[in-house]
Amino acid sequence: MTKSYDVVVIGTGMGSLTAASLLAKEGLQVLALEQNYLPGGCTSAYWRKGFVFESGATTLVGLDETMPLRHLLDTLGLTLAPIRLGLPMQVHLKDGTVVNRYEDLEAWIAEAERVFGVHNQRPFWTLCYQISQFVWETSMKQTAFPPRNLRDLWLCARRATLKQFRFARYAFTTVEDLLRRFGLLSNARFVEFVNEQLLITAQNYLAEVNMLFGATALCYTNFGNYYMPGGLINLVNPLIAYIEEKGGQVHLREGVQQIDYQQNTYQIRTNKDTYTARFLVSGIPLNNTLELYDKGYGKAYKRQLMDSSLLNSAFQVGIGFDIPPNQPWESIHHQIHLPAPLPQIGSHSIFVSLSHPDDPSRCDQPNQRVASVSTHIPHPAQTVIHDKQAIVQYILDLLIEKGFFRAEDIVYTHASAQQSWQKWTGRAFGFVGGYPQLKRVKPWQMVEARLDGKKAYLCGDTTYPGQGIPGTVLSGIIAAEKLRRDWL
Ligand SMILES: Cc1cc2nc3c(=O)[nH]c(=O)nc-3n(C[C@H](O)[C@H](O)[C@H](O)COP(=O)(O)OP(=O)(O)OC[C@H]3O[C@@H](n4cnc5c(N)ncnc54)[C@H](O)[C@@H]3O)c2cc1C
């Protein structure tokens, strides 16, 4: 007999699990289906040769007051014990200068002035910080955004403040516009810095990123940055435990293959079974969702659906190593700007995250650590990597030169590219990181949570506001809230 649930959720990424746990809290019977053998998607971990490697995400923000992850954990009554980072990130410029991305705004402005010159760094960063504070404050207040019906509009209007109107203009200003206004566009070193920093969360460069998203990306390190002992899978597992505690189920190795909607009910066919549900929440990218359930809705997304040419995948290297006698770096997160584009891929920086020195749980041996290295692969359907090992060697040589470890300290390495992402997450073209910010797409034109105008909803990093753990968590909060307001 076909099993029935109140809501079937596709995937167990941070977007899906956020929506699933909030709907389970509402008393709905939830089934989350995950095609992989492990949950979490791009926020997961896997054990290999005595080391626990992060699947994708390594940095964590969103736990401060008014931020989405804080809201989620408080709503569910979950307590985590992440380590707050003293120095969130260090950026290694092409010329070898190391920039300390201090959390404290004054300390950061002084550092920016030291490295990039005093001209207008203060007003630029002060404004960026104000905008990013505004964005975080507003995000949890405007959960009807982007509005798609009169009720949404009414809720947005009711919660609107003068400050929101004042800051809304930054949706029309790009980061490039603001740099021009502050006379910083001619500071080539600063422009390069800004571009690579933007790429981490906004997935695009200064001419395409609006100031609302741009300021939030640039001030990422000016908010509480955290490390989860054991890896970010320990953010995922408590959500799964919560769903199960509320009577819901999470099925691994069960991929959704087709969705139909008949007589007010969704029929969800997987590789193992068929289920029916009153509601559907898809936490997989819009591209994948429309492959399972189009019914002509694809047309409505014509302007929003992005193809490989606009998207990125990631080349990753996981490294397990013996701790060398001298560890020169204060931070666990490093963006290293490359002297020349990375061979075969063409990216201009790599991102390196180390396991925390106070977290022995990710290595079998106490004298070892893990490094997760990633870089963007543009246009993943087209970019061909001929010699993976050559890229790995380039990255290892660079990290040895920067003193992260010595050649003799390396115990284990492995690398993956877009094909691995496609297998691990099922995501079209193996693209990751969400839809990049584009100048032509204003925040209210981004993909919204209602999929078919019936009882199917969307969340994850291709749905507003997407991008990164905070964005996907917020997309899950919005999907659950829109579903609740529409039907419960
Ligand atoms: C290399 C890398 C580094 C990153 N670094 C950071 C970082 O430092 N900080 C940060 O905040 N963010 C980071 N991100 C981004 C962040 O990890 C993602 O945006 C976020 O985790 C995406 O979550 P999601 O819920 O949208 O989707 P996903 O994580 O993609 O989850 C979707 C899930 O659905 C499953 N699925 C797919 N198809 C089906 C199907 N048909 N049936 C059933 N299940 C299915 C997948 O297996 C997957 O588990 C990084 C991403 C990558 C790839």
Spans with pLDDT under 50 lasting ≥5 residues? none
Class derived from helix and strand content = alpha/beta
What is the number of E strands? 18
Kindly estimate the percentage of residues that lie in beta strands according to DSSP: 15-25%
Count of discrete structural domains: 3
User: How would a crystallographer describe the biggest sheet?
Assistant: 7 strands, mixed
> In CATH, what is the homologous superfamily of the largest domain?
FAD/NAD(P)-binding domain
Oligomer: single chain
CATH topology of the largest domain: FAD/NAD(P)-binding domain
> What is the share of helical residues?
25-40%
The CATH C-level class name of the largest domain: Alpha Beta
Observed structural traits:
single chain, 488 residues, alpha/beta, FAD/NAD(P)-binding domain, Guanine Nucleotide Dissociation Inhibitor, domain 2, seven-stranded mixed beta sheet, 20% strand
3D structure, described in words:
The structure is a single chain. The longest helix has 20 residues, at 468-487. This protein is of the alpha/beta class. It has helices spanning 14-25, 68-76, 105-116, 121-139, 150-158, 162-168, 175-181, 188-201, 211-218, 233-245, 286-292, 388-401, 418-425, 468-487; strands spanning 3-10, 30-33, 45-48, 51-54, 83-84, 89-92, 98-101, 226-227, 249-251, 256-262, 265-270, 274-282, 312-322, 333-337, 349-354, 368-378, 410-416, 456-458. The protein has three domains: 3-43 and 230-306 and 435-487, FAD/NAD(P)-binding domain (3-Layer(bba) Sandwich), CATH 3.50.50; 103-221, no CATH class; 308-429, Guanine Nucleotide Dissociation Inhibitor, domain 2, CATH 3.30.519. Helix 3 packs antiparallel against helix 4. Bound molecules: flavin-adenine dinucleotide. Flavin-adenine dinucleotide (FAD) binds at residues 10-16, 33-36, 41-43, 56-59, 255-256, 283-284, 288, 314, 316, 374, 425-427, 432-434, 460-461, 468-469, 472. Residues 10-16, 33-36, 41-43, 56-59, 255-256, 283-284, 288, 314, 316, 374, 425-427, 432-434, 460-461, 468-469, 472 line the site of flavin-adenine dinucleotide (FAD).
